Amino acid sequence: MEKRFFVIAGPSGVGKNTIADLLVKHKYGVYSVSMTTREKRKDEVEGKDYFFVSLEEFKKNIVLGNFLEYTNYNDNYYGTLKNFVLNNISNGYNVIAVLESQGALNIKKNFPSTITIFIIPPSFKELERRLRGRNTDSEEIIRKRLDSAKEEIRNKDKYDYVIVNASLDKTLNEIEDIIDKSNENM
Q1: What are the angstrom distances between the C-alpha of 3 and each of 92, 94, 104?
Q2: Ordered DSSP codes for 65-86
Q3: CA-to-CA separations, 57 to 15, 37, 169, in angstroms, rounded
Q4: Which residues share a beta bridge with 116?
Q5: Is the dihedral of CA 12, 94, 105, 155 positive or negative?
Q6: What strand order describes the sheet that includes 30-31?
Q7: pTM, whole model, 2 decimals?
Q8: Alpha helices, DSSP H only, in 33-167?
Q9: How far apart, in whole angstroms, are the C-alpha atoms of residue 100 and residue 75?
C-alpha cells in the first residue's frame, strides 16, 4: 500500500528534529535526509542528519533535477532528494521530512498530497531560550533565526496543521494521530 509524505516545518528551535526522530523511532515512517551546504555541527552524522556537500555539488544536483524542492535559507542551500522520497512511499513507507518553511510550502504546491505540519513555540521568548540553550550558533546566527521565525510564523495558516510544541509528549501524540488518520483516509 502506498503511503504519504509528511513535512514538519517551523522556526529553528521549536523541536522539529526531535519530533521527527521520535516518529521514526516509533515506526511512523522513515526519515527523509536532506542535502545541505550548511556547516556540519559537532553532533551531526553524515547521511543521517543531512548529506553535507559543497555549493558546487549542490548546484550540480539542481541541474540534474535530483530535488523535489530546494531553497536557500540563512545563506545555506537545503534540498529534498526526489528518489529517496518517491521510492520509500511506493515501497509502503511514510516519509517524514523536516524542512524550512519555504521548502515545505514548495513541496505542498508541487505535491498536493503531502501533509504539512507547522510547529510553533509556546511563546517567542521560549523560542529564544531554546535557541540560546543549544549553544551551537553565534549571536548573529541566533538573531537571523529569530528574525526568520517571525516571518515563518506569519505564514502558519498555509499548512495543513499547526501545533504548539509546549509539551513534547502531547505534540508527538497529536502528530501520530494525524499520520494514523491520513493513512486511513487513503
Answers
A1: 5, 5, 18
A2: T-EEEEEEETTEEEEEEHHHHH
A3: 29, 9, 39
A4: 7
A5: negative
A6: 30-31, 95-98, 5-9, 115-120, 161-164
A7: 0.83
A8: 55-63, 82-90, 101-110, 124-134, 139-154
A9: 13
| CA trace torsion 42, 44, 81, 79 (10° rounding) | -40
49-100 pLDDT tens trace: 889 999 999 999 999 999 999 988 778 998 999 988 998 999 999 999 998 8
- For each of the domains in the chain, give its residue range(s) and CATH number, in order of start: 5-184 (3.40.50.300)
Q: What angle do CA 159, 169, 2 make, to 5 degrees?
A: 50
Residue 138 has what pLDDT?
A: 83
pLDDT in tens, 112-145: 899 999 999 988 888 878 888 887 778 888 888 8
Q: Side chain identity at 92, as an amino acid letter? A: G
